Amino acid sequence: MEYGRKRSIICGGIAFFSGAAIGGAAENLYTLMMGRLLLGVGVGFANQAVPLYLSEMAPSKYRGAFNFGFQCFLSIGSTGAFLLNYVTSKISGDLGWRISLATAVFPAFVLILGTLFLPETPNSLIQRGHDTEDARKLLQKIRGTDDVEAELDDLLSATYAAQQIKTPFGKILKRRYRPYLVMAVAIPFFQQMTGIAVISFYAPILFQTIGSDESGSLMSSLITSSLGIVSTVLSSLLVDRVGRRVIFVLGGVLMFATQMGIGGIMAEKLGDHGVLSPAYNAAIVVLICAYVTAFGFSWGPLGWLVTSEIFPLEIRSTGQSITVAVSFLFSFVIGQMFLAILCHLKSGTFFFFGGWVVFMTGFVFFLLPETKNVPIEKMDRIWRDHWFWRRYMSDDDDLEWMEDNIEEPFLKSIK
Questions:
Q1: Who's near 373: CB < 8 A, 6+ residues apart?
Q2: Distance CA 249, CA 224 (A)
Q3: Domain total of the chain
Q4: Residue 260, domain member (yes or no)
């Protein structure tokens, strides 16, 4: 990032503020669409910069908990939005939806104001040419110790190598970066294929489908969203102790079980045109709550944590940009297709997403190395030791890549 993580977050906050203000005051469809577009720009900036900021500022042993705060507050915001929509849905006329849209200016303002008082990350300071002493003082401040030379040396080495790259955007396609590119695409894709977008976008419609009235469906959505917060907090206490892979796999098993339960009940008791009894309706709600809890415990926060910590500095911004783009692309695709899928597959919708959960859980188990307690600037060593990915990280590949991409003076200095 040429302008740093901090400025990117501020740009996201400005886009949020502008989009909310324009949307709340919209007088026609085009103005409303412009507001929504700006909100999307804000989401892109925030989801690209905030996880990177947290990963670069956090000590390695607490990096998971720091990043889980990102998902936790996303869940809090989602719950607040559900609650606000529940209240404003009872307001007649167009005032209700205007309040819903315009209220977003307040958290956007807090984001902008708060970020102004945050320091830039040491990684970004060095990468953008600031004095090394500034980075050392910042490291000493945020680590709470004067002994930061080892970490500073790692940052300087990674930054110097990154600055010598001649082809900054095409480098992630090189063979030695294949593991990172695969994860940058696969993890956000799998995160969306858990089916969480179904719950996030269409929970009220889904609850009405199984027999709840409009008020009850909105309240059920609020409950499930609240459970996402609780599960994320619980997971944040465990992620730096038990590791990422264990939580990924455990969450996958729980999501698969709940999706099979939901699909089974709907197939057996709902049929094509039936209505569930109150008992089965309650069972579906409980299973959906369990599913949201499992997602909030695992794939929700881990999908952002792992992708923000695995990339080496020279491709970190590029890799995170790909992650965000893939995430929102498939979120959009699934959101647009869900109603058609639900109409055609009916209860099979949950079997469809359950099948993907089995596949992605196996992918993580076999192909994702554990990143717990690994310093962010030494992350490449876990790929070199991995049974599958090490074939892409050989010394010969490194030398060939460096000869193609790094300036001659730097090459001579390391030979």
A1: 60, 61, 240
A2: 21
A3: 1
A4: yes
Distance CA 97, CA 285 (A): 27
Does residue 318 lie within any of the structural domains?
A: yes
Is residue 275 within 8 Å of residue 209, measured between CB atoms?
Answer: no
Instruction: Answer yes or no: is 312 within a domain.
Output: yes
As a whole number of angstroms, the distance between CA 15 and CA 7 comes to 12
Cα end-to-end distance, the chain, whole Å: 29
Q: Is the dihedral of CA 132, 145, 124, 16 positive or negative?
A: negative
Distance CA 356, CA 397 (A): 33
Q: Is a pLDDT exceeding 90 seen at residue 71?
A: no
Residues 6+ apart with CB under 8 A from 35: 18, 19, 20, 21, 22, 23, 24, 26, 101
Residue-wise pLDDT for 17-64, tens only, equals 999 999 999 989 999 999 999 999 999 899 889 988 998 888 888 888
Q: Where are the alpha helices (DSSP H) in 58-148?
A: 63-88, 95-102, 105-116, 122-127, 132-143
Rounded-to-integer distance, Cα 321 and Cα 93, Å = 40
> What pTM does this model have?
0.81
> Tens of pLDDT along 340-374?
887 788 788 889 999 999 999 999 999 999 999 88
Q: The domain containing residue 64 runs over which residues?
A: 4-118+170-377
Provide the CA 359 distance to its chain's centre, in angstroms.
20
pLDDT in tens, 379-396: 888 999 999 999 888 655
Asked if residue 284 belongs to a domain, the reply is yes
